[in-house]
Amino acid sequence: MLHADLIRPLATALHDHAQARGDELAFADDERRCSWGELEDRTRRLGCALAERVAPGDVVAISMGNRVEAVEAYLAVTRAAAVGAFLNPAAADSELRYTLDDCGADVLITDADGRERLGGGVTVEELAADDGRASPRDDLDLDAPAWMLYTSGTTGRPKGVLLTQRSCLYVVAACWAPALGLRAGECLLSPLPLFHSYALNISVVAIVATGASERVLPRFSTDRVLELLRTRPITLLAGVPTMFHYLADALGEDGRLDAQALRACVSAGAILPAELTERFEARAAVPLLDGYGITETSTMVTMNWPDGARPAGSCGLPLPGCAVRLVDPGTGADVEPGEEGELLVRGPQVMLGYHNRPQDTAEALRDGWYHSGDLARADPHGFLTITGRIKELIIRGGENIYPAEVEQAVAQHPDVEDAAVVGRPDEALGEVVAAFVVPRGEDVDADAVKAFVGEHLAGFKVPAEVHAIDVIPRTGSGKVQRHKLAKRLA
């Protein structure tokens, strides 16, 4: 069911919430609590200050950590009718400068650390003290570019993805409100990095659209999440698979989650193994709902709902109003249920295109469909299961191997904390599987891991080599950065 009433400008929603529930909590972090009345007032003043500095459609870059001021900056840019480009503050200096140059920002909003690293910028507090205009513009069209979010960079240089208010609000109206029950009175706990599209959507846009409240965490911490769930009236928790893996481990086989108000958790950003879902739900006693989404589709394309069927390992059904196809990557012909194909998406959430990359845009958006590059299977009822990416496919002696399948098998070994696999060039076979593992203890027996995987998968999928590593390189959404692992092999 589509909650179409939620698809309205964020400035309108802010004003309405301030009028209806001005003293109620909107956002809080470790330092501040901000009511709806305060949020409307602060974003109005920040929007006025920005409107003095930029013209409609200009780009404003934001590089800040997870806190209430970042949320205020995001919303202020929209109220100034500008385009917000979000930078990862944890990125290396060279990566930050690349993104800043690529987006062509006219203004940079940052903090003291960002100002030192990037050689300039204005802080939220400086903007709040300089509101020369009587009012912000508050006239950004729902279909105009609103945000520029950079792709994960799992295969190389990130690209700026242009999204609109409508595209992001559609996901709220078709997913977070009906599937999660997000509405006024609910409280979301979010340790997601706010520069990421998943967090922008569920942690900022969805909260403002629905009038719910949110506790923003500066970063994920197993102990901190468990503490807040125990001591605060948190009803919903958003995360990525890695976070739920650590939470399940912390609870232990005989543990139970002490969270009286929590009624559901949601995972996106990377493939959620069926084994992890089962383990977490048994220990937490709340549903862990998996969905599939990417930056180019304003996050969500499919979702599992709390009631009804949830096939093991599936990322659910397409959202209402969204169409998907699975096609043979070589011929473009639709595949049959149960067969693997590239996932194509058509719907209100699809991006406008890539910033200043017309060729990449034309390649991704063809004949009205977004070509995701992700491989998936659909069962006869339409439930999708993501199996990997076309470019990450490992072909060993003519046999196709999908990294995600091998990773799930390796990660189940009791001595393995985390795992990722890549293809290593091989003169005879073309490619073989190379596994990287984070040991639970001091070390891990490579031969034991190979034997364990051989008990669960066909022999040609067993890693030819196993390397211990301190941490698996991942993006903010939890996706493995395989190109970094491939460089280690080289």
Written overview of the protein:
With 490 residues, this protein is of the alpha/beta class. 33% of the residues lie in helices and 25% in strands. The protein is built from 15 helices and 25 strands. Helix 3 (68-79) links the parallel strand 3 (59-63) and strand 4. It is globular and about 70 Å long. The mean pLDDT is 93.
Write the layout of secondary structure elements.
Elements: H1 10-21, E1 25-28, E2 33-35, H2 36-53, E3 59-63, H3 68-79, E4 83-86, H4 93-103, E5 107-110, H5 112-118, H6 124-128, E6 145-150, E7 160-164, H7 165-180, E8 187-190, H8 197-210, E9 213-216, H9 222-231, E10 236-239, H10 241-251, E11 264-267, H11 274-284, E12 288-294, E13 299-303, E14 317-318, E15 323-327, E16 341-346, E17 353-354, H12 358-364, E18 365-366, E19 369-378, E20 384-389, E21 394-396, E22 399-401, H13 403-411, E23 416-426, E24 430-439, H14 446-454, E25 465-468, H15 482-489
Parallel strand pairs: 1-9, 3-4, 3-5, 4-6, 8-9, 8-10, 10-11, 11-12, 24-25
Antiparallel strand pairs: 1-2, 6-7, 7-17, 12-13, 13-14, 15-16, 16-19, 18-19, 19-20, 21-22, 23-24
Helix pairs in contact: 1-2, 1-8, 2-3, 7-8, 9-10, 10-11
Gist of the model:
With 490 residues, the chain is of the alpha/beta class. It is built from 15 helices and 25 strands. It has helices at 10-21, 36-53, 68-79, 93-103, 112-118, 124-128, 165-180, 197-210, 222-231, 241-251, 274-284, 358-364, 403-411, 446-454, 482-489; strands at 25-28, 33-35, 59-63, 83-86, 107-110, 145-150, 160-164, 187-190, 213-216, 236-239, 264-267, 288-294, 299-303, 317-318, 323-327, 341-346, 353-354, 365-366, 369-378, 384-389, 394-396, 399-401, 416-426, 430-439, 465-468.
